[in-house]
Each structure stands twice: as C-alpha cells, then as structure tokens.
Amino acid sequence: YEVEIVFSIEDKPLGTAGPLALARDMIETEYFFVLNSDVICLYPFRNLLLFHKSHGHEGTLMVTQVKEPSKYGVIISERNGRISRFVEKPEEFCGDKINAGIYCFSRAILKRIEPVRTSIETEVFPKMVLDGELFSYVLDGYWMDIGQPKDYLTGTCLHLSWIEEKSARDSRTPDPDYRPNTIVDESATIGERCQIGPNVVIGRNVVIEDGVHLSRCVLFDGVHVKRGSFINSCIIGWDCMIGEWCRLEESCVLEKNVRVADGIHMLGATVCSHKNVNKHVREPTCIL
Asked: Is-catalytic flag, 89?
C-alpha cells in the first residue's frame, strides 16, 4: 500500500498515555488517531475526524453500544457529544455506551502528557472531562474486542456477516460451493465432498483434502487439512498440518507449524509453534 511505518520504541512500559509523549516529535499533523490494537469494527476514520474538527476540542472518544453495560465502564455524554462523566460497572442502568478504544486527538492533548507511565483512561481522560475537552462519537455497526481467541472468532464472524450483507446490497452472486460468511483465497485447494462454512476464512496456499468439514474457524496461510477431518471454532496458524479424521473444536489455537497426528481429538487446546500432537487433548490445556 506504499505506507511508511515509523516505530516509537519504549525502553520501559509507559502505559497507554506515556507513549504518545514519547512519540511527540513523530506526530507531524494537527490531528491524529490512536487505536487499541485488539478491536475490530468498520473504522469510520473520515466521519470521526469530521466530527472531531466540528467541535474543535482536544479529544474525541469513539463509543459503542452494548447490551450489558454493567460489565464495563459506561460513558455519559450530553446531547452535543461532550462527555460529562464515567461510571465504572454501574449497578443501576445509567447508559449503554462504552469506550470502543478508538480516538481522534488534536496536538493540544500532548501538553497534558509526560513520557512516564500514565493511563490515558484513568488519568488523562478524567481531567479532560473536567475541562470540557473530551467528546464522544457513536460508532455505527459492529464492534468487538478480539484480544482472546473466543472473541477473535466472534469478531471474525461479525466481519464476515458484514461482508455478506454488503455483497447482498451490491447484488453480488454468492459462491455456490461454500456456505454463507466464507472467504477462501483463490490459491487454496479444496477437495471433494467438503463442507466449508459458515463463518470460515481460508488463507493462501491452504490445502483441504476430501470430506473435510470446516465451520467458524480461521486457517492461516499454508495450512494442510487431511481427509475427513472436522474443525469448528478454532484458529489454525501458519503451515500447520492436521492429520486424517481429526476433530478440533472449542477454541483450539494452533500456532505456527504444528503437526497433529491422524485421528486426534482436541478440545480447547492451545499449542505452541513447532509442536507435534500425538495424543488426544480433551480438556483445555496449553502444550508448550
């Protein structure tokens, strides 16, 4: 994409705010975005920036609506979007908007932050609220924190559903060989009598032999699944080999170049790179 990437490296942990001060000289524009790396949504940067410019203050925090706000810190805003307070895990309903982990800031915010360990959520934002300098922008569409394997799979399903809906709006014809919400790289090889989907992502140069069933899973580049195997709700890393007639389910995570022997049953296992799995794993465990 011809995008230049510049890294600012911390010699010691600086929290969620300190790194902004550390990278101060690298921020050359009047406005800039800050994102948590483990969230997925449609990233409406253009609309977020336009809203931020319209109110002219130091910060805009993107919020998303949740069904169970008592699990989170709730953000209370005025009609114009100005944030009035934060309520941590409220026992009584006071709102249903939470921090989505995506921000737009003006350079003026950097005056508030020193290159020391500082939390932007608990130390910087409350002071901005007191000064009337922090606004909220409501995210339209799906959102998910994908920092855990189960949530990563849920986020994948949400994004695949959005792609499917967009394809329907654009009058695209779905691929008759796969079930809904499925993306298969054109370099992948798919055998006969396979069930692919729903909610499956298959990367480059993946080989799926005959009679394989895949659902709610992500297969990274170079994975090989031998005949008759069943994979549901799993993440299969680069260059893994799944033997014949295996069954993997309940959020198994295989890192790079894992080898699973024929006929193995795995439930909720996490397997580190370059390991061989030669016996059943029928309860959640980590194989180092």
From this structure: yes
Type and span of the H or E element at 163: helix 149-169
Give pLDDT tens digits along the chain (288 positions): 788 999 999 999 999 999 999 999 999 999 999 999 999 999 999 999 999 999 999 999 999 998 888 888 899 999 999 999 999 888 788 889 999 999 999 999 999 999 999 999 999 999 999 999 999 999 999 999 999 999 999 999 999 999 988 877 665 555 657 888 999 999 999 999 999 999 999 999 999 999 999 999 999 999 999 999 999 999 999 999 999 999 999 999 999 999 999 999 999 999 999 999 999 999 999 999
Domain harbouring 204, CATH code: 2.160.10.10
Name the active-site residue from 53, 89, 111, 127.
Answer: 89
pTM, entire model: 0.87
Compute the distance between CA of residue 40 and CA of residue 37 in angstroms, rounded to an integer.
9
Q: Are residues 115 and 155 in the same domain?
A: no
Structural contact between residues 200 and 208, judged by C-beta atoms closer than 8 angstroms:
no
